[in-house]
Amino acid sequence: MSASQRILYIFAIKTFSSAPKPKSFLFNRSPSLSSPARLAVDHSLRLGSSVFGLSMENLQEGTGMRELRWKEKPKPNRSSPTMEDTSSATEAITNRINELSIAENRGQIRIPVPPIQFGSVPLENQAPVKSHKVIWKPMSYATLSGVTAVEVETSAPDRKAVDIQVYGAETASAEKNSAGLSKLFKGPLGADFSVDNFTYSLAQIRATFYPKFENEKSDQEIRMRIIEMVSNGLATLEVSLKHSGSLFMYAGHEGGAYAKNSYGNIYTAVGVFVLGRMFREAWGTIARKKQEEFNAFLESNRMCISMELVTAVLGDHGQRPREDYVVVTAVTELGNGKPKFYSTPDIIAFCRKWRLPTNHVWLFSTRKSVTSFFAAYDALCEEGTATPVCKALDEVADISVPGSKDHVKVQGEILEGLVARIVSRESSKHMEQVLEDFPPPPSDGVSHDLGQSLREICAANRSDEKQQIKALLQSTGTSFCPDYSDWFGAGDDHLRNADRSFFSKFLQAHPADFSTTKLQEMIRLMREKRFPAAFKCYYNFHKIDSVSSDNLHFKMVIHVHSDSAFRRYQKEMRYRPGLWPLYRGFFVDIILFKADKERAAEIAKDSNIVKNANGSCSTSGTDGLADEDANLMIKLKFLTYKLRTFLIRNGLSILFKEGPAAYKAYYLRQMKTWGTSAGKQRELSKMLDEWAAYIRQKRGNKQLSSSIYLSEAEPFLEKYAKSSPENRALIGSAGNLVRAEDFLAIVEGSKDEEGDLDTEREVAPSSPSPTINDTVPKYEGLIVFFPGKILCYGALYASILMPTMECPHPGIPGCAKSALCKEILSAPGGLEDDRPVHTLMGDLIKGKYWQKVADECRKKPYAIMLADKNAPNEEVWRQIEDMCRSTGASAVPVIPDSEGTDSNPFSLDALSVFMFRVLLRVNHPGNLDKASPNAGYVLLMFYHLYEGKSRREFESELVDRFGSLVKMPVLKSDRCPLPDPVKSILEEGINLYKLHTSRHGRLESTKGSYAKDWTKWEKRLRDILLANADYLNSCQVPFDYAVKQVLEQLRDVAKGDYTTPSTEKRKFGTIVFAAVTLPVTEIRSLLYKLAEKNPKVEGFLKDKDMENCLKKAHITLAHKRSHGVTTVASYAVFLQQKVPVELTALLFSDKLAALEARLGYVGSEKINSKNQWPHVTIWTSEGVAAKEANTLPQLLSEGKASRIDIDPPITTSGTLDFY
């Protein structure tokens, strides 16, 4: 049963009146649905299943599961208003809510608790629990300034949700408060808790957002696959607007409010206030009652809603919104197992029942519509704003469902982007039914006084973050936010955070149910694989009355630090199908409790039953990847947004700290990565140079804050846009600035919940593929350098400086960099180039090495410089870029070839070889050899300089920066696997390195608390590597072969025969017009034949060099400016297909000449040109635009042109293309 059907079943209301139904969606290929919504009780009853009617009943009956009982300490009473029966609709709602037992009964809320479930199998016959609510005492919370959370830096588990059942809570005192807890626990909570054979843990996901699945294919490959699936009727493409804000999740006032990686701070306080205000705006006078009902509904059904929180008080994105609002992006049933995410039609049904804001959504279910969508985006990607984008998508989509919040009205014209994903092929039918059953709801409170706005409250409370949080929560009201414990805690400082041992105790305890088993499995995997993530554990203040010495309640925040963790985890899921997905926004409630022997036996018995029912804990088809998780997805952003966020805001630190030259290099590299068209690059470069000069002159060396950058950028952009129509198109929209300085939320410690203000990046580029040749002129120099420091043969990084050629080496010590440089210098014929070759050995240079290289390049501007020093990080790479700009040289990086991993460009196999080489060398000038007591640590330090970057990202960044890349072979492709002892000692060293750096930072390994461990590890490393010397020698390619390969590549670079790798940037954007491209040679041959037969044609052509003036030939079908974006996009369905063409006549004047054309069919579809006169322009005189050929029929009628008919017409064919 769909979620929308469940909503209908729960909330049966009176059939809507006969007033005309407002249009809620657009059908371009089917008639509009006009029948009235059928939401009566009889309709809901036909659905035949309740919210909780989704369990495996037959399996349940056959397993003979025991009844599990538990008690929870009664909570102090919290009153709530009685529901009033004011209409038949309200009665229907009340009746359905009463069926869920959310009823008022002497101040108590009686909730039927769903059975404890292990996986998808519930336990029967559980009695409902009576529970009272608690008004918590305010206390400063751990996420506020001065408080540190307990973090376990290793891995990041999934976000799943399960109902927390309380075992042993009856031992808690009846009126426990913070003073009682202080007496109960001597230190931090969990410090005195011991784990034994009767210790159990219960983990339940409290809030979560969609899993983050990284596409391994390029955008173009994903597009092709999407088009293929839709064309074959296997799926539908769903597209939604990307509002520019922050992730906010809400699970009810007890379930909690959450930001992306935290809770209990200004971000969640703002979110709660804005969501509460949305209820007042939607429901008017009954808003308080609806807020309470909504909270009760989320709690009783264990649900969480995720939203994009768009405000002007939490820092600038692409445009300051005109209003503060939320848009619901996900609805999740947390249940007692893996979270279930609603489909978009079900989200719309849910939101319209609760009058929550929805997003604008489009569905594309045919080949024509889906190809038109991608073409429309390509035509708008560099100039698109909200109005033309939405208009274009409305015209090409099969179904358009406008959002309840109009982007233009509430946020503005600057549109961040679109999110396109594959969904079920039944989505269109499902959406049609939902839109018929759930018309857009009214907004009863729009005209009411809603009280102070978010901006007014923030402006009136400017002392500190706590004051703003308190003011916002008080203004929200007790009906929606009855207690503030998540923000201010319960009183005692030592009760805020879990003891550091809590995390390990959670993993050591027996899992009490199947969900806990799966969460522990996930966390253990991430720790084992050293995924970049932190586990932050806090005391769960909502369970303060249930805490005892043997029953502890905590909240865990799982914070994934890098997208590489999602990619790596996704790979693990392919090998382990039973793994739960890794979610974004991941919050888990955890209980550690003791069970007596009888209870432990019951849990063990029931767990075994569930294991058998679930195939020994393996996952069934429904426990595998959900459809939403496995779908292809692509994010499509607009240049008008990116120029503000990526180029202006994110470039501020570079501009103010490193200067205009470094800033220019930054924005040019970004535009190159995006594949921005050459014309737009020129326009943006001019604008950004003016911006840099303007803001530096105005502010001097005082850097502009990125959180309010629009205060300066918006007036500048508005003025710049007014100077010309081209500039207006470039900027997109500017003006009507909203001042944020007076009401900006106070975020202590410069926190940025989304990680958006400083580190927002584009998706890493795809793997390189060859494009065009780049030449290195002889009057330029070349610098060969080694980007990185991992002892490889000689991580050579050939930096081609214009006056000099330099080779920097990005690698690791032991990569044979110095040996390689010597071989290049002594090679017969050198680089087969007449420029002199020089080298500078870094270990022998005193002072600043790269400054010395720059000086040498200026002295010898037409030389090739081998930079015999590792260039291990981006800071050094920027120095080399600056050197190239200042000396006019170019740079070529030389790197050791390695498979790499998902999170490091070098494999453990390569690392073992590099270490082995270092431990064999003696008397090294840099003192890194067998005599070095900490050689292993030094190599691990360099190895971790690249942590978080895959091999593809590493190579792509070097190519983006320097335009070339030389690879040095290191390992044989047919080698045996790395011996287990070698692999184990390396992994042990990596774990020790993480522990050491997390505690001591960059302190030497010979110092600090792990000094003895390092000494033992260094000795064992030497013993194991020497014991496996035969393998480590045999797995390497011969050194002379490696030198030969590098020399060949460098010679190609020096001679200009080098082919620059492409990082497969977007080359399909910036569509201007559609045309049929014809073979030029055939057109020329036709003209020559006509000249032989017709003296007039011969006379016309005799003084024209057609070989040079006719190099391209096409028939324009539609132009973006003349015919509109969607008209051009409509030809996408025929892209790259052959179109038959008949050439029927030659028309010419003294300034123009063109062939008249008649287009044929592609399949059964006739191809028509939107031009009144389809033609091929073959010649224009100097200074005459090709488009003037459209006037030839008019000139012919005026006697100013001639016509030569081609009889019979000549038939040819061309390819339909976009230009």
TrEMBL record:
It comes from the Eukaryota. Pfam families: tRNA_lig_CPD (PF08302). Residues 68-90, 751-771 are annotated as: Disordered. One of its GO terms (molecular function) is ATP binding. Residues 1059-1200 form the tRNA ligase phosphodiesterase domain. One of its GO terms (biological process) is tRNA splicing, via endonucleolytic cleavage and ligation. Residues 77-90 have a biased composition (Polar residues). InterPro entries: tRNA_lig_PDEase, tRNA_ligase_1. This is tRNA ligase phosphodiesterase domain-containing protein.
